[in-house]
């Protein structure tokens, strides 16, 4: 038994070393990482992370420092593992969009998760090699990947969403030129990220590196800059939106077979099934158009025989074009980034007045917001409200701050900017008040978003309030709905009984009228569902009810 436990212990000890040499672990993960992401944002994320992974794997080991601060590195590794374990529940991030996210977006999210798995694998090797620099860079990569994952979920289908921290320097990046906010003189100076953190440039601590001169001046610490901003930033602001993430459309945009072809060789995966299903759907659609083409031709011939009087010009044009565009013949189109929804330069306005609003935006060629979901025919009111709620929050971010809360860069006049930059004593309270202002604006936007659906959903509110009465009303209707049961059957039998005991003509006549009424469903309009309101010659409403009943009784 002791020998067996010893063998198990040695095997478990050697297991990380064996696995770490083959990062990433798992065949499916390796196959995913061999694929090129469908979106431009995911491609740039993978390229930037790969550079950081290469640098992290080349970091030297330092056993003395690693053993001295062993607890510190264990805490760091634990935080990284918690961060990477979050990939197991990342579905929460986009559960609201499970019915909208296309297969291409799912593929890119899976590639990012595979890259997170590779980071976890490399972390084991860095720990075995006792490389503090490698662990530190991998921690920065893990945090970077998690944030990029969230921004991809938020902005993949939103042309206005921007990743606000993409252009900033991260700990795993190689040094590059930018601007350093030097503490003490509170001055922005051009230098590399590594120079900004050196002791001779950072004697009192607190230096911060920024990609551009404007970013450095807007940090509420540095109030001046030495030299002009001539060097372009290493990384520009980026928007995750890519039309490849949209649902496939006949305009050529979206996640069609051209894009999914990259993943068709991934057997036993949902991506392969998605490709096969879409391929089969395209074949069925094209065959259906071929089979029904004779109907289109017959309609056009009949219109021609009748001197083109049967169809309108719009209908005739639609029939001429119907079925001509085969799915496989449509040219794939793609736009991405922050300028994705800008009309092309060669697109002229229709009326020649030079108004750019007349130009056709790419978003007019795809469905920006689906009114109905894939699992029901009624309108998806809940999803529509969520989109309205997000739009309200976006509007909140565009609201202008009052003057006493503005940063220097937010003023239009130079004298106002200089006055704001001179008030260094207000930096801390101003930042605090800006946060409080943002929270208040978001709270107000949330309340405004809730008011609209409540005001427009009065009909549903009435239906919900009447729900307890439905069973009672149904029971009452069943009592008079059929002449062979319920109260009508009882009244009919009782009338027969009384008629047998009547001795005068007037009694028999009245009972006969009652029986005729009981046999006429039109006399019970609320139970038959045939009730129609109306007005007679005198203007009295509801007059058709008794007239219809009278006519039915007279005809019996």
Can you walk through the features of this model?
- With 556 residues, the chain is mainly alpha-helical.
- Among the domains are: 14-155, no CATH class; 177-225, no CATH class; 381-465, no CATH class; 469-555, no CATH class.
- Helix content is 54%, strand content 3%.
- It has helices at residues 2-20, 27-33, 40-57, 63-68, 70-85, 103-128, 132-155, 193-197, 213-217, 257-260, 270-291, 293-305, 313-321, 381-398, 414-422, 427-456, 458-465, 469-481, 486-501, 505-519, 525-528, 543-555, and strands spanning 177-182, 187-192, 208-210, 224-225.
- It has a 4-stranded mixed sheet with strand order 3-1-2-4.
- β1 (177-182) and β2 (187-192) form a beta hairpin.
- α19 packs antiparallel against α20.
- The protein is elongated and about 125 Å long.
Helix/strand layout:
Layout: H1 2-20, H2 27-33, H3 40-57, H4 63-68, H5 70-85, H6 103-128, H7 132-155, E1 177-182, E2 187-192, H8 193-197, E3 208-210, H9 213-217, E4 224-225, H10 257-260, H11 270-291, H12 293-305, H13 313-321, H14 381-398, H15 414-422, H16 427-456, H17 458-465, H18 469-481, H19 486-501, H20 505-519, H21 525-528, H22 543-555
Parallel strand pairs: 2-4
Antiparallel strand pairs: 1-2, 1-3
Helix pairs in contact: 1-6, 2-6, 3-6, 3-7, 5-6, 5-7, 6-7, 14-16, 19-20
Brief rundown of the structure:
The chain has 22 helices and 4 strands. With 556 residues, it is mainly alpha-helical.
